Amino acid sequence: MSNLSDKMNKRVAALTPAAILTFNQKISAIPDIVKLTLGEPDFNTPEHVKQAAVKAIEANQSHYTNSRGTEGLRKAAAGFLNKKYGLNYNPDTQLIMTAGATGAIYAALTAMINPGDTVIVPTPIFPLYVPILMLAGAKPVFVDTSEDGFILSPEKLSAAIEANQNTVKAVILNFPNNPTGVTYHQDDLQKLADVISKHDIICLSDEIYSELTYDGTHVSMGTILPEQTLVMNGVSKSHAMTGWRVGMICGPEDIINEVAKVSEFTITSLATNTQAAAEEAFKNGMDDALPMKKAYMARRDLLVAGLEKAGFSCPNPNGAFYVFAKIPEGLNQNSEAFCYELAEQAKVALIPGSYFLPGGEGYVRISYAASTEDLQEAISRIQAYVDKKAVK
């Protein structure tokens, strides 16, 4: 009998399961473990948003919608972006709703990539972008930002573009950043825009954590370089709606038209009731993130203080809900080995920094989308682990 798996797409065969999920699954079997692993709000979806979905179901809104999203949702999303960040997108031609930000990333990269293209990826970064661009036939060009405060410098961006000038199609930005919590400010973005504007490339700006910006106000790349930027966002983090799977992507009409084709052929349309919920979130939940943000900031301060006392050093996390902590000297600098040992001996689960590509080795990502009690217990266990290692 022939082995049909040998005839499958070789790009798919070359991929491996997501390391973060695999690690999380392995350590979950450890009894009494405190998990600070996954990036998911521990808050409930706001009640008024849930009720909008219930009403849609009761009204039998269970049919296909426009593949770009319902008119009401697109208008509400465009209004939210305009009021919050000064972005101006026509909801009929410049904005489409996607299956979460992941759907936006997939549709955008699939629409823009030709085999042999290169895409610039500043690292450390959430690794999801890489398998998607590889499936499209592109090659990632990693730019390590760990020595630059985890911010892509215009000099390094320019060098990466010049080194790949015949193939570079896009540069990816993610801010506030997963895993570092670092964000870009107006001046940072303007310097990058000055470089990008000199070339025929697209900036894919993933701003899903925009409402969880702690120091100052989030600035979108779409306000600085709108003609070359695709902005991605959604309700997952801002309204604690990760499982509802509603994202969006906005940009120039001619590019969005191509992205819309891929999204339509991939998902047809989003679930009707989730669109009703997201419309309610954008329209009447403009500030739903504020109480969550206040809690996250308190947790961040608690966690950073505890980690620094234990000997870890952390870049200032001024957004999202992660701390990217440098493993203290004298402990295992192989982040994966360190995290497995910490899980087994201290019963605390963190994510290895190496999973976030170049610049991540020697670090761990810690999610503070967890209760204060869990964070306090984790800090206590980490301190005890460090103290025990210091005695040996």
TrEMBL record:
Q: Which Pfam families match?
A: Aminotran_1_2
Q: Which GO terms describe its biological process?
A: amino acid metabolic process
User: In terms of domain of life, where is this protein from?
Assistant: Bacteria
**InterPro entries per record:** Aminotransferase_I/II_large, AspAT/PAT-like, NHTrfase_class1_PyrdxlP-BS, PyrdxlP-dep_Trfase, PyrdxlP-dep_Trfase_major, PyrdxlP-dep_Trfase_small
Query: Its Enzyme Commission number?
Result: 2.6.1.-
Record CDD domains: AAT_like (cd00609)
- Where do the coiled-coil regions begin and end? none
Q: Which UniProt keywords apply?
A: Aminotransferase, Pyridoxal phosphate, Transferase
Question: Which cofactors does the annotated protein need, by name?
Answer: pyridoxal 5'-phosphate
Q: Where is the Aminotransferase class I/classII large domain?
A: 32-382
A single GO molecular-function term is: transaminase activity
Report the enzyme's class at the first EC level. transferase
Question: Can you tell me which family this protein belongs to?
Answer: Belongs to the class-I pyridoxal-phosphate-dependent aminotransferase family.
Entry protein name: Aminotransferase
